[in-house]
Specification:
heterodimer; A: mainly beta; 56% strand; B: mainly beta; 11 strands; 0% helix; globular
């Protein structure tokens, strides 16, 4: 079983709609969580960290569910520019400096 | 100013050759990383250095040898290149060593697309 799993998608979303997707992680010792965004043929860039109580950044909302070991990302009012692959990243303090990346969820926002 | 830079951006070479990829960060970060992203888009960590010292060495063939002359640079040398080495290699850096939680945002370089023929 992969340490970090994501639905690869693609999620086809009409412009203005809401889309949400999850990421599950296998190691309960995981301590910090992030969502990164990767555009085609570009480097990953941090979208947002995920805090225990959940957090919001504009149209993006991230949640953490430790009991079920997953994090989620919700995008409201989708824009064409939100089309990208969203990577879930998990870090475990017992694996010094070792960030585990999911394979990504592709989101395609259509006009 | 580019925060994390890599050279070259594209590298096309024959099987059996030896090649190097260079990475530099001007963020003052203590930790640098090399990742490999294959055709399935899965990003896998290869190496991590903290203040020039190797802290992570994943199951990577010993044909791959990282070198960190100082904490702002982490280069990757690959000997005897094989077809399966074709991938995009990303360098990244972060302030901490992965122990400080949310201060450990990673900043990635633009990637080096390696094609082995």
């Amino acid at each position: 079983r992969k340490e970090v799993e994501q639905d690869p998608g693609p999620f086809n979303v009409p412009e203005g709609a809401t889309v949400a997707f999850n990421c599950t992680y296998s190691n309960s010792a995981s301590q910090s969580f992030f969502w990164y965004r990767q555009d085609c043929r570009k480097e990953p860039k941090l979208l947002m960290s995920v805090y225990s109580s959940g957090n919001e950044d504009g149209r993006f909302t991230a949640q953490l569910n430790r009991a079920s070991q997953y994090i989620s990302l919700l995008i409201r009012d989708s824009k064409l520019s939100d089309s990208a692959t969203y990577l879930c990243v998990v870090n475990m303090y017992d694996s010094w400096g070792k960030f585990q990346f999911g394979a990504g969820t592709q989101v395609v926002v259509t006009p | 100013d580019t925060a994390v830079s890599q050279t070259p951006k594209y590298l096309v070479t024959q099987m059996g050759n030896d090649k190097s990829i260079k990475c530099e960060q001007n963020l003052g970060h203590d930790t640098m990383y090399w990742y490999k992203q294959d055709s399935k888009k899965f990003l896998k960590i290869m190496f991590s250095y903290n203040n020039k010292e190797l802290i992570i060495n994943e199951t990577v063939p010993n044909r791959f040898s990282p070198k960190s002359p100082d904490k702002a640079h982490l280069n990757l040398h690959i000997n005897s290149l094989e077809l399966g080495d074709s991938a995009v290699y990303f360098c990244a850096s972060s302030q901490g060593e992965g122990l400080a939680g949310h201060t450990d945002t990673q900043y990635f370089g633009p990637g080096t697309r390696l094609t082995v023929l």
